[in-house]
Automatic annotation (TrEMBL):
<protein>
    <submittedName>
        <fullName>Anti-anti-sigma factor</fullName>
    </submittedName>
</protein>
<dbReference type="GO" id="GO:0043856">
    <property type="term" value="F:anti-sigma factor antagonist activity"/>
</dbReference>
<dbReference type="Pfam" id="PF01740">
    <property type="entry name" value="STAS"/>
</dbReference>
<dbReference type="InterPro" id="IPR036513">
    <property type="entry name" value="STAS_dom_sf"/>
</dbReference>
<dbReference type="InterPro" id="IPR002645">
    <property type="entry name" value="STAS_dom"/>
</dbReference>
<feature type="domain" description="STAS">
    <location>
        <begin position="20"/>
        <end position="129"/>
    </location>
</feature>
Amino acid sequence: MSRNTRRAVVRRESAHQHFSVLQIHERDDLEKIHPIGEIDLYTAPMLRDAIADTERRQVPNVLVDMSEVPFLALVGVQVLREANERSTDEHRRLALVAPTHPVRRVLTLTEVTDELEIYVTLPNAMSALTRV
């Protein structure tokens, strides 16, 4: 991507603006979904909608950047697990950046770390998604 190219950003916000999801078009084959705030029963549908949007458009690589998620409820884990299953079935790739301790802990306790492609840093994830 050239330095002069603007990235398209879509922002979804909750009614109370305690949670938002950015969708950032990084390049033709990669879109980043960046939730900001707690993912719980109230906000998980917004994450699900953002992922579903990339699925409808058949984005080959989707990166969910959880670096600004201080809390991840089980419903959020389920959203990620289901999205991963669909992406595998459709020969697409879903990766997750989970740098916060609470998010990593929930993912470990729910035993999805073997199912999901998880990275500790954004640069590592971006680098991995560059490889074909």
